[in-house]
Structure to design on (576 residues):
């Protein structure tokens, strides 16, 4: 059973925020738990703006990158934007393609094929680029681990600008310019930009250097979707970029996103970042997982509504196929996990088979990892080579774990929470042993599996629409800015507690102040039966959300976990 730890907050900071913002102590505690300690910081948090973004020239090599781009445009030479096949990569490629096109550049784009090209830059691009006489290659969301391909291009007289955000040990020596905040010694103050975010920074640098208005705000919808799709922390610049990008997205002026909204049945207004992640992002991702992602860039950059609608329908069919494949992968992996879950020293799940499609093993790994709370790697085998994806529920750095087992891998890459790799079939068993040991050592002193951090402890009476309105101002929620969790203690469970739907509980509760409410526990029937709760005492971990039903708004307490602190009297008598 997990422990709930309410984040400690300095009393002086609470007083400053409560008095300075005119908010309750409970609200002040919630905003303070996000690292906000002054009134000015709070106001900036509530009102993200473009002027909060860092100067793009804080990147050490931004000046060199901007100079190279301007020289190639002036010379009328061709520029190739080399994207990646996931949501971040295609959105980033679309950003640069559209931005450079607006400057009159002779610009083209290329998106690698997952099955043909694997991870990173596509080797075939080198030979083609030399044949057509490119003037410049700009990577988006890739390139940091592709020194050999960059060298081939550079030796052929084609300079390469790398824009990326993946973990990197050292600079690619032959790159004309290297824009990656994670490079050791880099002076840029924020290291968690997505690939789309870094691409946007390059355009910001060009705009500033040229002293013109490129109307970059129109590209923020692409930045937002790319950032949400890559699951980077929604703090600092990312918070501003996603907030402003969602405002731009809600205009639905980009035909591609407008078409995806219709096929995904997303509401036109009032949507959340979470809804984007479950509607738009999977569809932007789908083609790159099982076919070609080129059509996604075409969708996102076209001004033709009819063409956008046609591509969106094609993507919907591809997404349906992806969902079917994901369901099978997840089903298989969960069956394997059920067998191993009670095995001693089982720190990870690593499963491989030739029945899976490599494009969907990442989704399967994420679902298994989330369900079991264990880092999971799923590997699709084909022709003696395995393509694997790793996901972690937290507590370990996935890329670091892959680095420790790199002697068994052909190639690898990734972030703290996710990674990908290729491996020879005969090395899979050795990798499993190495990976299990590495993760075991990493989590030995970690409390990630036992402690959940909540923002504040509240009373039932405090859970009203006013507090929920305040919480809504903290959005968009995601990694680094999780939706607030509250703890409510000393609740008596009353006889009106009942099952709703197939697996939910509606809990009738009251507290020491005799406040009575009904709260909802989605999927809690898996853990608790009403008869085992009625007459006893509980404490709950919950989200506070606005519920709208038949034009009526009400505050809703949505329970995520229940701890029983006192069993019903009948149960105690049975035990005696």
């Amino acid at each position: 059973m997990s422990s709930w730890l309410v984040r400690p907050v300095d009393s002086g900071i609470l007083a400053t925020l409560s008095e300075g913002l005119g908010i309750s102590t409970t609200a002040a505690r919630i905003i303070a738990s996000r690292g906000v300690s002054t009134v000015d910081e709070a106001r900036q948090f509530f009102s993200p703006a473009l002027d909060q973004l860092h100067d793009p020239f804080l990147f050490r090599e931004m000046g060199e990158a901007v100079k190279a781009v301007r020289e190639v445009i002036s010379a009328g030479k061709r520029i190739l934007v080399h994207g990646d096949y996931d949501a971040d990569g295609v959105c980033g490629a679309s950003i640069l393609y559209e931005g450079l096109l607006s400057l009159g550049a002779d610009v083209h784009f290329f998106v690698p094929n997952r099955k043909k090209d694997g991870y990173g830059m596509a080797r075939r691009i080198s030979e083609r680029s030399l044949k057509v006489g490119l003037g410049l290659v700009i990577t988006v969301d890739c390139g940091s681990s592709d020194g050999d391909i960059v060298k081939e291009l550079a030796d052929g007289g084609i300079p390469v600008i790398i824009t990326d955000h993946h973990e990197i040990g050292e600079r690619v020596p032959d790159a004309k310019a290297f824009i990656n905040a994670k490079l050791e010694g880099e002076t840029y103050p924020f290291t968690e930009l997505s690939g789309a975010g870094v691409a946007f920074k390059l355009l910001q640098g060009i705009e500033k250097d040229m002293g013109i208005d490129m109307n970059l705000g129109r590209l923020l919808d692409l930045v937002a979707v790319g950032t949400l799709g890559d699951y980077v922390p929604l703090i600092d610049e990312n918070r501003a970029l996603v907030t402003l990008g969602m405002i731009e997205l809600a205009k639905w002026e980009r035909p591609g996103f407008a078409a995806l909204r219709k096929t995904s049945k997303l509401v036109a207004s009032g949507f959340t970042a979470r809804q984007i992640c479950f509607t738009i992002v999977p569809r932007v991702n789908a083609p790159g997982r099982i076919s070609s992602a080129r059509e996604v860039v075409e969708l996102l950059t076209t001004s033709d509504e009819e063409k956008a609608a046609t591509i969106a329908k094609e993507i919907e069919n591809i997404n349906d196929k992806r969902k079917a494949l994901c369901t099978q992968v997840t089903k298989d992996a969960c069956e394997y996990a059920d067998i191993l879950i009670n095995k001693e020293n089982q720190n990870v799940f690593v499963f491989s088979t030739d029945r899976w499609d490599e494009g969907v093993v990442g989704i399967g790994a994420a679902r298994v990892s989330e369900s079991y709370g264990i880092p999971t790697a799923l590997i699709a085998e084909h022709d003696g080579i395995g393509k694997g994806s790793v996901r972690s529920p937290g507590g370990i750095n996935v890329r670091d774990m892959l680095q420790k087992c790199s002697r068994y891998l052909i190639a690898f890459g990734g972030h703290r929470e996710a990674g990908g790799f290729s491996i020879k079939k005969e090395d899979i068993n050795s990798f499993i042993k190495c990976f299990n040991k590495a993760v075991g050592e990493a989590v030995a002193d970690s409390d990630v599996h036992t402690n959940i951090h909540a923002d504040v402890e509240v009373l039932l009476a405090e859970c009203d629409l006013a507090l929920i309105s305040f919480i809504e101002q903290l959005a968009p929620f995601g990694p680094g800015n999780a939706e607030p969790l509250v703890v409510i203690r000393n609740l008596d469970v009353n006889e009106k507690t009942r099952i709703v739907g197939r697996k939910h509980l509606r809990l009738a509760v009251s507290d020491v102040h005799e406040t009575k409410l009904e709260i909802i526990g989605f999927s809690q029937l898996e853990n608790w039966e009403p008869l085992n709760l009625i007459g006893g005492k509980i404490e709950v971990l919950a989200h506070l959300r606005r519920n709208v039903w038949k034009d009526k708004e009400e505050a809703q307490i949505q329970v995520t976990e229940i701890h029983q602190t006192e069993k019903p009297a009948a149960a105690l008598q049975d035990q005696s």
Q: What stands out?
A: The chain has three domains: 3-10+451-575, 52-251, 341-443.
